Amino acid sequence: MSNLSLKLEQKAKILQVQRLTIQMLALHAQNLADFLQEQVTDNPLLDIRYHDVRPAGDKGDKAIDNLRSRSDSLEARLMAQLRVQSLPRPQLMAAGLVIGSLDDKGFFQGDLASLGTAYHLTPGDMKKGLELVQSFDPPGIAARDLREALLIQTRRSRKAPAKTEALLAQHYEDFLQGKWQKIQASLALSEAGLQAIRDFLKTLSLQPAGQITQEEVYIRPDVEIYCDEKGQLALRSLEEIPDVYFRDDLYDQYAAQGDKETLAYIRKARRDFNDLASALAYRHHSIEQVVTCLMSHQKDYFLYHKPLQPLRQKDIAEETKLSTATVSRVCH
Questions:
Q1: In whole angstroms, what is the distance from residue 309 CA to residue 306 CA?
Q2: Interatomic CA distance for residues 317 and 323, integer angstroms
Q3: Do 143 and 130 form a contact (C-beta atoms < 8 A)?
Q4: Where are the domains of the chain?
Q5: pLDDT per residue as tens digits for the range 46-80
């Protein structure tokens, strides 16, 4: 005779919407777009709409044609640094004009006054715009000649030996011609001091743009933190996620048939869509909450370049009312 017994145990039951939420939080934007495409393929009552990533007025190029070249990548990096500056509009415009006028090596060889005339910018604005770009990375960018590029790199380096800047400012021609004894006597340098300067100058880049790795790695962030017009931190989503929508027209068409099996199928399809929409909304909400918390705690770092403050995922979870697991997935 079989022995019968009762056993009581607890099992965690994950709802469909919870499973989808966990999946989506673990995906980056591109992988999420692929995942949504799979959902649309499996559910005939769903459809997907991709956003047009082509520039305005562009009718023929494919999206892949819009990938930037190396020189365009340099411009994009500089413009990204410009966007976070909180300065008067004329100076920002001047800096933008300078960035657009750099050559492939990263030098600015245009005429500041004539460049600003078309936009009604004063020579003072253009000069401040040039100085602003010269403070960006990579060091030496927007220099007007090689000497200025070396000077900028020297001023921004903590490893520059004493009197390196004086050598470049006062004895650049002598340096090019190798008149070491003259330089040594004029600057009162020892043999070791002069050699240290020569060794340091060998480490500097002769082409500012050449400091950027030529093998580009395209990083697609989920959000961007920037300074708004009032100088306050703000964030915006950079994810290019397609829109998924429910085909109500097909639902009504199938529902009119009155077949029980068909009705059960399309109702399940609608529930699946609602779960998908809820999971997407929760993903967006979670990312926004976590980044907003980071902005609040690290405000001094973003605005004033002060050290980062210790911040645990547990602390973020308590403040945002999200679970620690959710915060962990967002951070990852």
A1: 9
A2: 6
A3: no
A4: 70-211, 240-331
A5: 888 876 544 444 444 333 333 334 445 788 888 88
